[in-house]
Amino acid sequence: MPHIIFEKDNNNITVPSTIDGTQFEFIAKSYNFTQKQRKEEYRISTKKDDKRFLLTLKEKNENYLLKADKVTRISPVQILKDSINSYIKLRESKIISSNTQNFNKKVEPSQEYLKDMDFFVNDFKTQKEIQIEIGFGSGRHLLHQAKNNPNIQFIGLEIHTPSIEQLLKQIKIQELKNILVVNYDARLFMEFISSNKVGKIFVHFPVPWDKKPHRRVFSNAFINEALRVLKIDGTLELRTDSRKYFDYCVELLTNLPKGKITIDINKDLEVSSKYEDRWKKQGKNIYDVVLTCNQEDKDINFDFDFSFDEFIDFENIIKDIPQKAIVEEDFFIHIEDIYTIEDKTNSGLIQITFGSFDRPLSKYILIEEGKASYYQDSPLPTSANIKAHKQLKGLLKK
């Protein structure tokens, strides 16, 4: 992470200030929220190239450390490096050490096919049939499908960065135009796909998670979301070498109120992964179970107002705001930290983690003179985030 260590001095900057295209908007100071003695920390609101984020300033031994805030960091990383350098230049402090100089610039991956979740919430539209592969690994199966079905829009989900980079290279080499890639939890991604639009969902060789079954892709909630997004006669296709995982999924699928499932053992596909080839050589069985959708669902509304009430008494609520996590059946809220904005009344930052247990979201709520909003942007409108926001509004009214 970009950072600079510099000598401790009294050369504080004045906010708002602008230098070399970087604007420093305000500085927030840590509030002793947990009643534990700790050194002071600061969050510096920064804006560059129309992107807004925070920098963290804190003591490190006998010096100061300035680095990117882990919650609001943005890309490309060069923006963070430039902003950290600009702060030190404005402050006129003596640098002890730094990793913000660019001797070897890393090439950022192309954004043409790699999309974030905001794209799928706000901008994704297609008249083509959609097919989704969850956990595409090396990408061999996904590339094969896309190459042989140019009129279908494929979406590949993966959380392993090297696998994503490998697939993006192959998309460019093979000149494919019908794959979009997203680094996101499949269990939550489905909430942002319109109903009755998907022809196939491939889940090939997911991690079995025998010791942590709550982390499995397949669950009752996932299956219900799959059925909502699938077209009539669309399919959810599991392929696994794990007999335990296969039995677990079959039990879930056979407990549906209605549906059709097909089971195969050692079925040959047109393309297989290198791991599948290895397992077959070892004599390992490969299990397939396919759920066919026979229902049509109503579309869902992605619009939700993540605003707060007009006035929030920040200076009073931070005295009583709960330190323990609020845990409900399908969402949670944890107040992580609080920062007060100097020279402004009823102003500060509340750092929170909330939403789904599977994909918790970390954000800041910015309160400026009693008016609250999410710093940077609003949360994605997942059902867990919506429920958490409603409860947050109640907490901030007190």
TrEMBL record:
Repressor listed as a keyword: no
One Pfam family in the UniProt entry: Methyltransf_4
GO cellular component: tRNA methyltransferase complex
Originating organism: Halarcobacter mediterraneus
Pathway named in the protein's UniProt entry: tRNA modification; N(7)-methylguanine-tRNA biosynthesis
Family note: Belongs to the class I-like SAM-binding methyltransferase superfamily. TrmB family.
Organism placement in taxonomy: Bacteria, Pseudomonadati, Campylobacterota, Epsilonproteobacteria, Campylobacterales
PROSITE patterns per UniProt: SAM_MT_TRMB
Catalytic activity annotation: guanosine(46) in tRNA + S-adenosyl-L-methionine = N(7)-methylguanosine(46) in tRNA + S-adenosyl-L-homocysteine
UniProt entry keywords in alphabetical sequence: Methyltransferase, S-adenosyl-L-methionine, Transferase, tRNA processing
GO molecular function terms attached to this record: tRNA (guanine(46)-N7)-methyltransferase activity
Binding sites annotated in the UniProt record for substrate: 211, 241
Annotated function: Catalyzes the formation of N(7)-methylguanine at position 46 (m7G46) in tRNA.
Name of this chain's protein: tRNA (guanine-N(7)-)-methyltransferase
InterPro entries: SAM-dependent_MTases_sf, tRNA_(Gua-N-7)_MeTrfase_Trmb, tRNA_methyltr_TrmB_bact
